[in-house]
Amino acid sequence: MIHINEVPLDFEPRKKILSKIPAFPPEPEMSEFESAFLCGLLKICRPKKILEVGVAGGATTAIILQTLEDIGESYEMHSVDLSEKFYRQPKLNTGFMAAFAKEKIFGDLRGMHEFHFGKYLPQVIDEIGGEIDFVILDTVHNLPGEVLDFLAVLPYLKIGSIVVLHDVSLHQTEYPNAESNGMLLGAVTAEKFLNFDEQALFRYPNIGAFQINEQTLENIENIFLTLILRWIYMPPENEIVIYRRHYKRFYSAELCEIFQEAIDMNAYNFWQARRK
Ligand SMILES: C[S@@+](CC[C@H](N)C(=O)[O-])C[C@H]1O[C@@H](n2cnc3c(N)ncnc32)[C@H](O)[C@@H]1O
Fold first, then answer.
1. Fewer Cβ neighbours under 10 Å: the N or C end of the chain?
2. What average pLDDT does range 136-162 have in this prediction?
3. What number does CATH give the domain 2-231?
4. Rounded to an integer, what distance in angstroms lies between the CA atom of residue 126 and that of residue 185?
5. How large a percentage of the chain has pLDDT more than 90?
6. Are 149 and 57 in contact (CB under 8 A)?
7. The pLDDT of residue 261 is above 90
8. Closest to 1 measured CA to CA, from 216, 256, 247
């Protein structure tokens, strides 16, 4: 089922925290509307264990922390990024804006927040642990991209968990390859949440969310099958090994076989195209 305009947008946490930390455009990479959707969902869901994958400068991390602090309950939040250095400005650390906010603005947090940089999600997810009830995926946007991390984190989510996807319509802009999150939102079996952005050129938003239910797990082959689509980039061998090993722990032999077929076909096509 799809729920449209049911999330009460909350613009306040972003205004509150961004007015206190040095600006670093284009951080955060979410628009005000997208941040308001994320903060509104956090306010209604009041999650206890939050996982963010894809941090960049950390402005969105700071906005999430502000929202959690405003909710006023204890929480545990983990922010994961493959890069230790800010991908737009390698002189700076990934998450530098959130690190500033933690040190200079928030002081002692009500909850606990930890960064995990320089590793793929499967390399840190056991340390983070299960019972995660709110996830934000915002990394590559090109296939296989976030689909890999959704499959990696799913076994660690509770039924009822919320997964927020940024850039679900980025492929309709000057980035036509950025389809992974739109595809994931379309293919997953779940309760789906979108708010229309009436101020934008097109009101279909660039952020969406879904809520995990029993059928999400029963129909997970649909997500493995999206990986048969043509990948936009070929992950390095070590990344493939890490994800394949992780999936073998949680998914059936048949689903792991589909994953292997997707790897084989995409690797073949990728290297064929390079040879031309
Ligand atoms: C679009 S930016 C994130 C923007 C951020 N969420 C925001 O709202 O400002 C993408 C980030 O994902 C990270 N990234 C790319 N591939 C990744 C992967 N496989 N796992 C974790 N992080 C990844 C990049 O280093 C980069 O910092």
1. C
2. 98
3. 3.40.50.150
4. 25
5. 95
6. no
7. yes
8. 216
